[in-house]
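Page 42, continued from yesterday. The earlier attempt failed because a stray header line got pasted into the input along with the sequence. Redoing it now with the clean sequence only.
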Amino acid sequence: MGRPRRARKIAAAAAYGGGIGAAGIGALGLVGYGVLKVEALLARRIVGKPFDGAPDDNGRYGSGLGYPVQFLVLGDSSAAGMGTQTAQQTVGAIIANGVSALSGRPVQLTNVAVSGAESTGLDAQLAAALEEVDNPDVALILIGANDVTHRIDKALAVRHLEQTVRALRATDCEVIVGTCPDLGTIEPVAQPLRLLARRWSRDLAAAQTVAVVEAGGRTVSLGDLLGPQFATFSQELFSNDGFHPSPAGYARVASALLPSVCDALGLWSYPEHIQPDLLRGEGVEPVAVAAGQAVREAGTEVSATAVGGQPRGPRGRWAILLRRHRRPVTDRSELAEVSQDRDASERTEAETGDEAHIPGAAAAQ
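This time it went through. Structure tokens are written below.
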């Protein structure tokens, strides 16, 4: 069964209240639950100890005239900013500053994300958010990784996400969902667990896209946004626990999401007379096909569209794929230079000792 078909099946089960079993239940039979359990325990030891918490990034960002843009963030530890040191380094804060700069208005960020949250926890987060903000302008949801690692029924997870998107859209709030990241890119996770995690997370991401677009939102695939650079630049893109992104990693995630958030707010638009760029992999497809394509390239946006004035075709709702995200300007050679400079600095500190960090130490000698 191909990924588009699996995505349709999961989304249909979510819509009609059915279930298709825990994540990856068929694959579990191939390798044995015991093997996966051992691999998971080893991965936890390698990944390291979790952080005590994420910084509180709630507050007002930027400046300008007019009422603040009301920006909600819901989701798991990636939405909360686990792995950052300051509030300004979270995905929500980076996007809030970007929106303020482009809109000329301040942005009020309300972050109700919970570290460790599964999609079933979105109901409580939404209730908490709407208690604080009556009329949100835009909401960002980052969810899915814990649904995979905890083997939550994918249809159940997607159902809660879809209900949250529909509830937000009922308030005229624009909704952008960063779909489940590709957990198969996490190097500390060994095979065969890594291979299965990749399939489970990509299947969930595709099903999330189908459900979110049907509910009136748009998705941005996060996929392997950080994965290709993990082995070489893990210290730059991942935090000390080897699992959560570093501030640089979160900046890269935010760069993939910011264009879609701004477009949803009307801060820049994709002109209707411009056709999708086929050379960039853009195009119009049935939503399930678009969802399957999106998971293969991080930064791909999927949203509803119409063909000949019709929102649906013979294979379901039409969707448009856009590659708004551009690859980072910094290339591998520049990152290598930064890495070398960091290593040299660490060696110098080790040789000179703590006195190098004490103001006036050299003068005292």
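Notes: Confidence is low (pLDDT under 50) at residues 20-33, 352-365.
Reminder to self: strip header lines before submitting.
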